[in-house]
Amino acid sequence: MSAKIRPIYTIITRKISVNSPKQTTVEVISGRDSYYKKMGNKALDSDEDLKPEGWDDAKPFKEIPGPKALPIIGNFWRFLPGAEFYNVEMLELHERLQKQHGNLTYLNGIPLKDPILFAYDPDDIEKVHRNEGPWPIRYGLPSFDYYRNHVRDDAYQGVGGVLTVQGEEWFKFRTVVNKILMQPRTAEMYVDSMDDVANEFIDNIRRFSKSNSKNEMPEDFQNEIYKWTLESMGVIAFNKRIGCLKPNLQKDSTGQKLIESSVQLFELMYKLDVLPSLWTILNTRNWRKYVKILDFFTEINMKYVNECMANANTNSNISEYEKSVLERLAQTDKKIAFAMAGDMIIAGIDTTGRTMAAALYFLARNPEIQEKLRQELKSQMPAKDSPVTKNILRESLYLKAVIKETTRLSPISIGNMRRTVRNMVLSGYQIPKGTDVLSVTLLLCMNEKHFQKPKEFIPERWLRTTQGELSHKNLHQFVFLPFGYGPRSCIGKRLANLELEVGISKIIRNFKLSWNYPEAKFGMQLLYGIQDPLKIKVEELED
Ligand code: HEM
What are the GO MF terms of this UniProt record (predicted)? Predict the structure, then answer.
């Protein structure tokens, strides 16, 4: 995009979305109908749910409580230095909003951002998800969407991927990729390669531990974890070892450049899509940097997909499950393979990386839990260098409970976002279709109404054998949704769990972890997670 100013249609789109929904009657609400009809969602064409049960008795939308927006400056000023929400951590912000305004809070008046409803009641969250229809709508990364569909439509050719597109286009894409990525057999196929990648990560951890008298991981250990997730995702997305975990990576190597670019990419996404930003109307410095980085990813992606196609296995005796994910995607549609490989890299590094960081931190702080996990692993992996196999993973129930408990206390997203596609009543208020609702599940996961000792790391709560109050068996189904919900839920869930299971098994089987610092701070940048340097002490186990 060479023009200094974004095309006028973008500005108009943003302006429309900045307007708060002031609808109070069903007729006015239908103003957004054409948009959804364009997406072809038949459910929206029918009149049957125009007035859902309880609509006439519900209070109008405009009465939903929330921080009052002032003329012109809206609510933005509340987040400025000295004001009530300045630098307030996400969890605390939502605790305060819920306390002040109740289970449904409306926030508008943040420049160039859509107004949003925060839902804190699991029954409301259930209603939103159960009414999301077959093509749920989730907005979140407009900068990424704009890049693919407008800046580099030459490369993506109208196939925007699964992360940001909506409606029928999303559904068609997702139907193709689900068949390949959501299969348990697909994930299992990668156990050996994930084991290889984890071995290199273990070597690096060992080297860091020996490099200082305290046996601590470096301040930027989180980036080292990202190298491991990028290398793991590279195997799946590109069918290729990128080489990010090699010690002394050359500055100009692709691996090093990819690592640096992905760290910057997430920082920039946060600045463009989460913080107020002028990129939607101007070619800001951050926007230009962002496009440059995404261009680099596009170029690498194209190169690797072409390489994979050129080396594709033409042996007709080989079963579908012996082929790589990328090969199978490319067999169906090369454009889909290209966009999906890019999505996997964007969605698969920071997410699994932050979850791994949190898991290691919780294990380091809880030596008894760590030892219990180690005993489970030792029964399956007699030697420190025993490979992880799919049978080991099937049997390792405590390991799975550790990962679940990690995602309860440190989910990558504080909640799930949906744009409602039907009118509905939430907490006694009329909610018009077309409203963005963020279900803040993190708040529920931290509430003793739903979890006993909610702030403590207790994997036992997820074990089937656990009885009584601690057990998760009576948990409301919409309180704990770390991978989202329904047809739009995380497509990488199986792959992420596989990576984490293999990586954590190897680390805990080889090392003793401990934490010698005050409790780490958690918070949100693009994603939620630990904010402090991850200086975990790592000691080699004897056997
Ligand atoms: C622990 C790691 C991960 C967590 C906790 C996680 C969580 C999530 C969540 C909460 C969503 C939104 C779901 C919704 O709206 O209902 C999502 C979407 C998505 N995730 Fe993950 N994710 C993880 C790892 C991965 C990996 C490794 C990949 C790579 C394949 C991936 C690919 C995606 C994609 C492509 C979407 C968008 C799906 C769509 O909109 O149809 N994720 N993830």
Answer: heme binding; iron ion binding; monooxygenase activity; oxidoreductase activity, acting on paired donors, with incorporation or reduction of molecular oxygen
For residue 510, the CA-to-ligand 1 centroid distance in Å is 29
Indicate the top mutation candidate among 483, 500, 524 to test ligand 1's pocket, ranked by most ligand atoms within 8 A of CB: 483
CA atoms within 13 A on the CB side of 446: 17
Q: Is-contact 441 129, C-beta < 8 A? A: no
**Longest CA span, the chain:** 72
Q: How far is the CA of 187 from the centre of ligand 1 (A)?
A: 15
3-state secondary structure of 505: helix
Q: How far is the CA of 483 from the centre of ligand 1 (A)?
A: 6
Nearest-CA residue for ligand 1 atom 41 is 488
Could you name the CATH architecture of 4-540?
Orthogonal Bundle (1.10)
Residue owning the nearest CA to atom 19 of ligand 1: 490
Quick check: 92 and 57 in contact, CB under 8 A? Answer: no
Ligand 1 atom nearest 181 alpha carbon = 30
CB of residue 496 inside a 6 A radius of ligand 1:
yes
Ligand 1 lined by 101 (C-beta under 6 Å): no
C-alpha radius of gyration, the chain, whole number: 24
CB of 344 shorter than 6 A to ligand 1: yes
pLDDT of residue 513: 98
- Burial (0-12, 13-18, 19+ Cβ within 10 Å), 201: buried
Q: Where are the domains of the chain?
A: 4-540
Cα of 196 to ligand 1 centre, how many Å?
24
Residue spans of alpha helices (H) in 182-220: 184-188, 191-210
Q: What is the mean pLDDT of each run of 10 residues along the chain (543 residues)?
A: 42 30 30 40 53 93 94 88 90 95 94 88 97 90 89 89 88 92 90 96 98 96 94 90 89 87 89 85 93 94 87 69 84 89 90 97 98 97 96 96 98 94 95 94 96 97 93 94 96 96 98 98 91 97 93
Ligand 1 close to Cβ of residue 246 (< 6 A): no
Instruction: Check residue 56 and give its pLDDT.
Output: 94
| Residues near 133 by beta carbon (within 8 Å), at least 6 away in sequence | 41, 43, 44, 421, 422
DSSP summary character for residue 524 = E
Query: Which residues, in sequence order, are bridge partners of residue 539?
Result: 512
d(CA 321, CA 180): 9
Regarding an ipTM greater than 0.90, the answer is yes
CA 161 / ligand 1 centre spacing (Å): 13
Say how far apart CA 95 and CA 109 lie, in whole Å: 20
Instruction: Sort 288 into a burial class: Cβ within 10 Å, 0-12 / 13-18 / 19+.
Output: exposed
8 is written with which tokens?
């006028």
Looking at this protein, which amino acid is placed at residue 176? V
Dist. CA 249–CA 240, nearest whole Å: 17
pLDDT, position 207: 97
- Residue ranges for the known binding site for heme are 490
339 lines ligand 1 (CB under 6 A): no
pLDDT for the residue numbered 420: 93
Beta carbons within 10 angstroms of residue 290's beta carbon: 24
